[in-house]
Amino acid sequence: MTDGLYPRLADAFPGLATEIAELLRAEGEPLAEVVADLPYYGPCTCTATCTNLLTAPPNSLGSSMIQLERDGMDIIWLSLDPSRTAITDIEVLDGRDLGPSAQRSG
Asked: Residue 69, SS3?
């Protein structure tokens, strides 16, 4: 559940959120059930070329990762908090256009 200050990832990127949940379910990963309610804090601004989508406040610690594949290729990396119970950011690797919600302002 979000706090109302930020949109849900599922509202900003409905197709991506659905795909992530489906891929996690296929791996038997319980985090699949939290994807629909992840907040979207905007694109990462750590470097000019970073393409991560933040689902936790900027500078949140992501200490481990889940790699999601399709046809044997990594397509999405999910960074997780130290407890492995929250997704802190999402990196989409397959080059898809995520539209204006993924673009940095300024």
From this structure: strand
Q: Please report, for residues 7, 39, 52, 65, 88, the alpha-carbon distance to residue 21 in angstroms, rounded to integers and kept in the order given.
A: 18, 15, 17, 15, 15
- Is-contact 60 52, C-beta < 8 A? no
Average pLDDT of 74-99?
Answer: 91
Beta strand 53-54 with 42-43 is antiparallel
Query: What's the distance, CA 47 to chain centroid?
Result: 17
- Give the pLDDT confidence of 28-38 residue by residue, as tens digits: 999 999 999 99
pTM summary value = 0.88
DSSP state letter for 80: E
Instruction: Report how far Cα 59 is from the mean position of its chain's Cα atoms.
Output: 14
Q: Is residue 41 predicted with pLDDT exceeding 60?
A: yes
Tokens coding 34: 């939290």
The domain limits of the chain are 9-95
